[in-house]
């Protein structure tokens, strides 16, 4: 799954992990692939499932491959 780096940085900052966010900002690509970049995400303490729970319902529609429909209830949407 492709996730915008800024979403990950916001997630880390919201958790009070500004140091990790700064490091992630330097090392992560602009578009993070959760499969390809899983090792980096793990190193920064990013749990992808926890991150997805924080995506506002309106953004779920923008997830690729119909994931918004599949995760709608999980992400707080009405699907």
Order of helices and strands: EHHEHHHH
User: What general outline do the C-alpha atoms trace?
Assistant: globular
- Indicate the radius of gyration in whole angstroms: 12 Å
Record the strand order, biggest sheet: 1-2
Main beta-sheet annotation: 2 strands, antiparallel
Q: What is the gist of this entry?
A:
This protein has 79 residues and is mainly α. It has six helices and two strands; from the N terminus they run βααβαααα. The chain has a two-stranded antiparallel ribbon.
Describe the structure.
The protein has 79 residues and is mostly helical. The chain has one domain. The chain has six helices and two strands. The protein has helices at residues 5-14, 18-27, 38-43, 48-53, 57-60, 67-71; strands at residues 2-4, 31-33. It has a two-stranded antiparallel sheet with strand order 1-2. Helix 1 packs antiparallel against helix 2 (18-27). The longest helix is centred in the first third of the chain and has 10 residues, at 5-14. It is globular.
List the helices and strands and how they pair.
Elements: E1 2-4, H1 5-14, H2 18-27, E2 31-33, H3 38-43, H4 48-53, H5 57-60, H6 67-71
Antiparallel strand pairs: 1-2
Task: Based on the model shown, name its key terms.
79 residues, mainly alpha, two-stranded antiparallel ribbon, disordered C terminus
């Amino acid at each position: 799954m492709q996730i915008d780096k800024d979403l990950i940085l916001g997630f880390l900052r919201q958790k009070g992990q500004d140091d990790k966010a700064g490091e992630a900002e330097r090392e992560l690509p602009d578009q993070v692939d959760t499969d390809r970049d899983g090792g980096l995400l793990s190193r920064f303490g990013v749990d992808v499932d926890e991150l997805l729970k924080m995506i506002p319902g309106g953004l779920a529609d923008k997830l690729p491959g119909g994931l918004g429909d599949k995760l709608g209830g999980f992400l707080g949407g009405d699907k």
